[in-house]
Amino acid sequence: MFPRCAVDEWGLISECRDQNTSGGGQRQTNLFRIFGEWRKALSDFESGIGNFLSHTLPTTLLFASESKAYIATEEDEKTTRLAIVNLASAWEALPKVQAEFHQQFGHLYSARTLEQLAIHEESNFRHLWPAAFAMHHERDVRIQNFGRVKEQEIVKLRMEFLRSIVVKIEEVLGAESVTIADSPWILDGERHLQVACNHQSVSSLAENAEGVILAIWHACRFKNWRSMEWQPLVVEWPKLAIVHTLDRKALMPACIRLSTMNLFATDDDFEPQQHHLLALPLDNEQFALSGISEVDNPLVERLITFQNAVIAFCFTVPRYLEILELCDNHDLSESDLERITPTYSKELTLVWQQAQNELELLLNALSAGGFQQISTLINRIQDISESLLFTVDPEENLSLTNDDFDEWMTNFTTEISKLNTLVTEMLSAMLISPPSV
């Protein structure tokens, strides 16, 4: 692909410049609206490729000079690093460019042509990356078939990475508890490494959730990585999609999504947080692509959806403290705080309403489900919900005071633990002797 300054392939610039009719402005707006995402994707890709190419000549000259006893300077090392940083940026941008090209111009070419183009583009990066990476980290290496050897090393790293994930999770869940899909799971247009973690009991789902995330983090450290050495893995799987199953069946169509880059780059003090444990719901069509079957019990999905809605609300409340700290750090007044909080209050109210709606749906489903001691269950759910979800007038936005926030934070850990315990008990009852719904 040529830089933008070299050619106006689609005539967008010249066409818009030459419009002299009264409708020219509207047509220009329509063109930019239609091709907006394509232009942005191409711009990101061009930026990375252009900057990479600008560093290739100095890097090549450095390689040649060092063979004649030249000693690289700090500036030389910066140049070689910028080369791989920009190549990595372009490589990461490639899938978006390809997707937008297919959407806007795919009808002009056969499916086979587009497939071959994608294979060729990805192959170029797989060949370029080992050489560029070596120019920064291994310029002193002199071996025959250098490129082929380094590409084989990347294939080996890929296999070791996948093996490490299986080994580390099995240390938590036991043998044969992990299944990794052969091909990427495409979610929202992005490639995910699908990791299915099977549990033998409902209690294991709750007790080992953090352990699985920590195991994956440790799996990413199966070797001492040099700067950006993990890049081919990040490009192949920008994210991990973790599905927890019970007896090989998912409790609902959902998965936990983790950034592969963050897993590789996070420091040694990593601790799983609540957002690492929250499974985001998927529509049935998306989840079907995983090939994982689901538990056939609507109450199970209803219960977990309620739990996730409450947790989402609990994620949002602590942002009040961030607002207070922001005001304190920048010496903002009470009036400034009053101008900032309405947006937060609106967002908080939306997640509160979602949690309240899910609570009502769950209680209705339980009432119709024929559980023993249903009144006791409903009372426990309502008590916990009243502690975690503020009492709010449905016609008004939820607004916090410092006293409200302090009281909520005091009870949060205990109440969220009660919720998780109750959910585990109810899931066990539903799955052992599911009521009719």
- Class computed from helices, strands and strand pairing: alpha+beta
Number of strands: 8
Helix content: 55-70%
Mean pLDDT: 85
Termini separation comes to 58 Å
What's the SSE pattern? HHHHHHEEEHHHEEEHHEHEHHHHH
Biggest sheet details: 8 strands, mixed
Give the tally of structural domains.
Answer: 3
Large-scale geometry: globular
Task: Please tag this protein with its features.
3 domains, 437 residues, 8% strand, globular, alpha+beta, eight-stranded mixed sheet
Summarize, please.
By secondary structure, this protein is α+β, with helices and mostly antiparallel strands.
Topology:
Blueprint: H1 12-17, H2 24-34, H3 36-66, H4 74-105, H5 111-137, H6 146-173, E1 178-180, E2 185-187, E3 190-199, H7 202-207, H8 209-219, H9 231-236, E4 239-246, E5 249-250, E6 254-259, H10 260-265, H11 274-277, E7 280-281, H12 284-288, E8 293-294, H13 298-316, H14 319-329, H15 334-367, H16 374-388, H17 402-432
Parallel strand pairs: 3-4, 5-8
Antiparallel strand pairs: 1-3, 2-3, 4-5, 4-6, 6-7
Helix pairs in contact: 2-3, 3-4, 4-5, 5-6, 6-8, 13-15, 13-17, 14-15, 15-16, 16-17
